[in-house]
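Question: Send over one sample?
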Amino acid sequence: EPDVTIVSGLKDRVVAEGDDVTFRCQVSHENARDVEWKLQDVALQNNEMNEISVEKGKIHTLTLRKVTEQDIGTVTFRVGPHTSTA
């Protein structure tokens, strides 16, 4: 299985409280396994507050819904040994 790397990393975002914010990270290969999103070192699951999806097989997205002051912090995307933060 080829080593999946990060082609285009996360970008910092500033958003108003109550708004949604989306982070995108592009990887080198489709169907990447061992992918993880974190906020402040806490692993995120796909639910009503966090929408995790993959577009076109390579663009992994995380949307945080109706952010609050408690959501301030570092977002991390990890694929295998590679990470990107914003």
Q: What stands out?
A: Residues 6-85 form a domain with the Immunoglobulin-like fold (CATH 2.60.40.10). The first strand starts at residue 6 and ends at 8. The chain has one domain: 6-85.
